[in-house]
Specification:
Blueprint: H1 4-23, E1 61-66, E2 73-79, H2 82-99, H3 104-120, H4 122-133, H5 137-163, E3 166-168, E4 177-185, E5 188-192, H6 198-211, E6 215-219, H7 225-241, E7 249-252, H8 256-265, E8 268-272, H9 275-286, E9 292-295, E10 300-304, H10 310-322, E11 332-338, H11 342-354, E12 357-358, H12 376-389, E13 393-397, E14 399-400, E15 415-418, E16 435-441, H13 444-452, E17 456-457, E18 459-463, H14 467-475, E19 481-484, H15 489-492, E20 501-502, E21 505-506, H16 511-516, E22 519-527, H17 549-561, H18 565-593
Parallel strand pairs: 5-6, 5-8, 6-7, 8-9, 10-11, 10-18, 11-16, 12-14, 15-16, 18-19
Antiparallel strand pairs: 1-2, 3-4, 4-22, 9-21, 13-15, 17-20
Length: 594
Amino acid sequence: MAFWWPLLVLAVAFAICKFLLFLIPPKVPSIDVDASDVLDDGNQAQENSFIYVPSRQQSSGKVQCYEPATMKYLGYVPALTPDEVREQVEKVRKAQKMWAKTSFKKRRQFLRILLKYIIKHQALICEISSRDTGKTMVDASLGEIMTTCEKINWLLSEGEKCLKPEYRSSGRAMLHKRARVEFHPLGVIGAIVSWNYPFHNIFNPMLAAVFSGNGIVIKISEHASWSGCFYFRIIQSALAAIGAPEDLVEVITGYAETGEALVSSADKVIFVGSPGVGKMIMSNAAETLIPVTLELGGKDAFIVCEDVDVDHVAQIAVRAVLQSSGQNCAGAERFYVHRNIYASFVSKVTKIIKSVTAGPPLAGKYDMGALCMHAHSEKLDGLVNDALDKGAEIIARGSFGHIGEGAVDQYFPPTVIVNVNHSMRLMQEEAFGPIMPIMKFSSDEEVVRLANDSKYGLGCAVFSGSQSRAREIASQIHCGVAAINDFAATYMCQSLPFGGVKSSGFGRFGGVEGLRACCLVKSVVEDRWWPFIKTMIPKPIQYPVAENGFEFQESLVEALYGLSIWDRLQALVNVLKMLTEQNSTSSSRKKKND
């Protein structure tokens, strides 16, 4: 006891000190970001209004920006030419060479500065996202703020550990060696991101790229360029606050040729968008053989077994489908409900949907905002009409609030459709809209077959009173992410990789896998006890190879990998015997020559 008592006291004292240090907040400088030109003053911007983008040459082409909820003109950004894109990439490449030498301590400070700004300016960030994409403030908070803060928090706590050299076993033949994996920056990451979450879609690849020592050029969507250019200022201000190279991160704007130029000049491409464009990016990336990560949307299955709390799951289901209202590529788009509770479930979601009101998200208390892309409601009408023509039935729709005449086409009412089947386009094509098609199933085997009957494979959600049953169903669905008794929870766990299979793409961002995907993964082997023990080529296989060279190799292989310990020992004796004989022969030859 006398021996352990001092150790116990030291351990307790150490724990108390760590706890006290935890209570002391780190010193994080504040940054100021000019938002004067993006705050809504109630006036419509003039047609020649230019959104200021730092360090950018103005091109002759323009990307016009509007509020989808009101169609108010916001201004324009330049559509960069291929030459201008390549110029930006080279600037980032020079900055990255300096940044790659920085410490993880400095990189963490960059993250803390961003986190501090985000937390203090949540309303501003969400309002700008809402104006540019039509989503509500609540949806913006859930999808833009929380996910980004969680990403930063994960990188702060685990990022360095994931990028430190990882030692691996060296195996039997290389016991005298040390084997490790090193993670080095790739150089310049090119990210082409979608419009649905303009803040998070910029910050998500940027955070991983910069923390792993890379530079990044982000081509933002022409449908959300106005907000993206402001979010870029936040990044620039944070870089300046730590004295980082100002050109380490660049945001570029434009159309298809802008993105194509980025693909041809970056060292890796991350793309978030449609399967069609994803295939073109793969084709272009093949010219320079650079790695590609593709997140191409989905048609997630939402499965409800008969043993659930129907009221609880109905609320989650409506949230899942409204998250798909033109805002979330990971939304649930196919609902499969066990026939024993089908009527009850349909009744519950119908009641909730009828209470939902869509309208300009900043003009009143609305549950749902506008569709971001112009004329997307025509596509949704086409999917619904095809289903109706094939026997489906609309049983509930939400209502509209006060919508201006110029923005009517930007809205689509939340809709519940029953009597659907897989012959309908609505159950096969990605809708990206607030439509809930509900289909019955009778057995677990049937619902697994239905869920897998899709060209997409991004995610799924499975609900059951038996967690093991839900887990078993989810394990059989061919997709990249799965939530058990929840929806989209996997994305809030930023330690997990995110991505899909089939037409939902390949590669992962998020988690260890996503962070290391921004790296050159290098395998390294070195002598464990250098210079005392070095690799020596055994005499029988030195040049010129001895007559018993192959016999020696046979015995060596069996000595190392034989299944029986006795066989291995016997082979080892043979190896030692041949080495001894070879050394004796060599010595004799040497004496004879002398």
